[in-house]
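ARCHIVE CARD
CATEGORY: sequence design from structure
SOURCE FIELD: tokenized fold
FIELD CONTENT:
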């Protein structure tokens, strides 16, 4: 009887943990931040799970051969965790976090003082190559490589706008610039990218036109 009671207790504990995990997944970012501030590490782990890929997207144009994207992403989340008390819930956690990632990338670039190179073994692709046809995959690879040859001032906004679909307001907040300045930067970035791709056929979604 005692052994059976123990099994029931363990089973109930596991069920409680499962429910807590599901509950965290359904919470808003701000609710998770509030819990993390109170010492609930699992809530912060949920935030990491939600945004680790996106943080990596922001970081990789700044990363070089000697600095791994994973290391910079981890540093971003550590910095954000240390600064949770400064987060203003009137704003979106996502943009606050990506601003930290972008600033870390800039700091890293300043320390390196060299040319950022694309490393296909480290950087995540901008598009889903395996699910595309061979021609589309090659085209996507050309666009991705061309984007990463641009200065970070232009490659990061392109990634955030066209690969991640963030709004102008979100990107401007992340980069600490005005929306008009961002649109001007994107316009120039698209033209620079189109110039690099002009020998490879018609322009794609990142062509000269559009907003």
């Amino acid at each position: 009887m005692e052994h059976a009671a123990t099994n029931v207790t363990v089973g109930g504990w596991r069920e409680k943990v499962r429910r807590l995990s599901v509950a965290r997944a359904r919470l808003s970012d701000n609710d998770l931040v509030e819990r993390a501030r109170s010492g609930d590490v699992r809530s912060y782990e949920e935030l990491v799970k939600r945004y680790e890929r996106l943080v990596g997207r922001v970081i990789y144009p700044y990363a070089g051969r000697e600095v791994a994207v994973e290391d910079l992403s981890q540093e971003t989340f550590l910095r954000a965790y240390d600064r949770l008390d400064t987060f203003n819930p009137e704003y979106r956690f996502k943009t606050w976090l990506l601003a930290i990632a972008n600033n870390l990338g800039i700091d890293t670039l300043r320390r390196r003082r060299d040319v950022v190179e694309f490393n296909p073994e480290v950087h995540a692709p901008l598009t889903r190559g395996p699910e595309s046809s061979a021609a589309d995959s090659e085209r996507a690879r050309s666009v991705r490589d061309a984007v990463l040859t641009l200065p970070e001032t232009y490659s990061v906004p392109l990634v955030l706008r066209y690969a991640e679909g963030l709004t102008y307001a979100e990107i401007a907040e992340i980069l600490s610039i005005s929306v008009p300045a961002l649109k001007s930067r994107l316009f120039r970035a698209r033209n620079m990218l189109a110039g690099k791709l002009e020998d490879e056929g018609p322009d794609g979604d990142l062509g000269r036109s559009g907003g």
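CARD ANNOTATION: Residues 53-200 form one domain. The radius of gyration is 21 Å.
SHELF: design records, drawer C
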